[in-house]
């Protein structure tokens, strides 16, 4: 099972991949997403399912099936993606439990404040913003090779 941070980052990476490579009518399949992310398909399936259940992705079955965005990228905020990716991944209890007076009065409130700042920031960034960043960084979509029926 992915660690929570890795699962959240995988959710964002999956959504960005789908936003970048799919269209309203075309889908991208899980194997291609996994290949581009350098992950095993089996490893990203739970995150794909969580994102689909949240309505952020639409899953299409069949030979030309795959995934596409459930809403326009400008309407999908990164905070939503993370919440969906983590929704079905409860904490394992393996987190280090720290206690003590200083921790409870200083460190824990600081961490909660940082988490809130992060959530606030991610609530202002859309998937479309990430696609623009990818284009500005020079990332290009792979050109599909036309089918050739010459024998």
In short:
This protein has 151 residues and is mainly alpha-helical. The chain has helices at 4-21, 30-37, 41-53, 78-87, 101-122, 127-136; strands at 57-60, 66-69.
Secondary-structure blueprint:
Blueprint (H helix, E strand, L loop, with lengths): L3 H18 L8 H8 L3 H13 L3 E4 L5 E4 L8 H10 L13 H22 L4 H10 L15
Antiparallel strand pairs: 1-2
Helix pairs in contact: 1-2, 1-3, 1-4, 1-6, 2-3, 3-4
List keywords for this structure.
54% helix; Arc Repressor Mutant, subunit A; 151 residues
Count of distinct strands: 2
CATH architecture of the domain at 4-92 and 126-136, by name, is Orthogonal Bundle
Mean pLDDT: 87
CATH topology of the domain at 4-92 and 126-136: Arc Repressor Mutant, subunit A
Radius of gyration from CA coordinates: 18 Å
Shape by Cα distribution: elongated
Uncertain segments of ≥5 residues (pLDDT<50)?
A: none
Question: What composes the largest sheet?
Answer: 2 strands, antiparallel
C-alpha termini separation: 47 Å
Strand order of the largest sheet: 1-2
CATH superfamily membership of the domain at 4-92 and 126-136? Winged helix-like DNA-binding domain superfamily/Winged helix DNA-binding domain
Structure description:
- It is a single chain.
- The chain has a domain of 100 residues: Arc Repressor Mutant, subunit A.
- With 151 residues, the protein is mostly helical.
- The chain has 6 helices and 2 strands, in the order αααββααα.
- The protein starts with a helix and ends in a 15-residue tail after the last helix.
- The longest helix has 22 residues.
- The chain is 54% helix and 5% strand.
């Amino acid at each position: 099972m992915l660690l929570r941070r890795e699962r959240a980052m995988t959710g964002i990476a999956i959504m960005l991949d789908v936003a970048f490579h799919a269209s309203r009518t075309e889908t991208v399949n899980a194997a291609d997403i996994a290949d581009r992310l350098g992950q095993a398909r089996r490893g990203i399936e739970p995150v794909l399912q969580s994102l689909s259940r949240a309505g952020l992705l639409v899953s299409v079955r069949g030979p030309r099936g795959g995934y596409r965005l459930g809403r326009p990228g400008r309407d999908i905020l990164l905070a939503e993606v993370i919440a969906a990716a983590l929704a079905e991944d409860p904490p394992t209890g393996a987190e280090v439990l720290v206690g003590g007076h200083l921790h409870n009065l200083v460190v824990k409130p600081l961490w909660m404040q940082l988490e809130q700042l992060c959530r606030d920031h991610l609530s202002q960034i859309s998937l479309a913003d990430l696609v623009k960043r990818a284009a500005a960084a020079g990332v290009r979509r792979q050109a599909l090779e036309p089918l050739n029926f010459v024998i």
